[in-house]
Amino acid sequence: MNGKPPSVLDIGCGRGGFLLAHALSFPNENVLGIEVRKMLVDWITGVAKGEGLGNVHAEWYSVVNGLRWIPSNSLLKTSYLFPDPWPKKRHYKRRAFSVAFLEEVHRVLHADGTLYLATDRVDVDTHQRSVFRVHGGFELTDIAEATEHLWPFPFSTDQQLFCERKGIGYHRYIARKK
Q: 109-119 and 171-177: which strand pairing?
């Protein structure tokens, strides 16, 4: 990276398509991606180096370990897009999205910061919204035609493109600190 701290965090950056597109589209923002699969982080690192992208970095890390290493009020944007759904009830405990997770995101976001969310799973959407209600520190806005201007990304995730190709609906919304 260019030596400056990140202003954007992409949680679960996967293969890095969204992460790298973000870095290319917003060269004045330093974008950090975290991903639990090391081989994907290594691949993203190689692409960023090969393309000479100094404003992007990927870390091999699991968000379930918290975000204590990120300074408070330091991020303008955080994205949590199409997370692993862990759809079986017995696996719900593996979902990273919890009140403790939201507390960490709330802490690291700048007062004007925004958390961007997307999912193609109704159960994940329902779970996340219930966690937001319990936490109470964010105001949610669904992204629809009337609010499309609130979604600042002129690019899509791989999963979003897949959903569009297959005609699978998905939900996008933003969360702002209260």
A: antiparallel
- Delineate the domains of the chain, giving CATH numbers in brackets: 8-177 (3.40.50.150)
Give the length of the chain: 178
Grade residue 88 by pLDDT with cuts at 50, 70 and 90: low
Q: Are 34 and 69 in contact (CB under 8 A)?
A: no
The pTM of this model reads 0.93
Active site residue 84: yes
5-17 per-position pLDDT tens digit: 999 999 999 999 9
Catalytic residue among 84, 120, 125, 158: 84
User: At residue 86, does pLDDT exceed 60?
Assistant: no
- Cα–Cα dist 110/106, whole Å: 8
Q: Which residue, among 178, 174, 177, has the nearest Cα to 80 in the 3D structure?
A: 174
Residues 6+ apart with CB under 8 A from 155: 18, 21, 22, 25
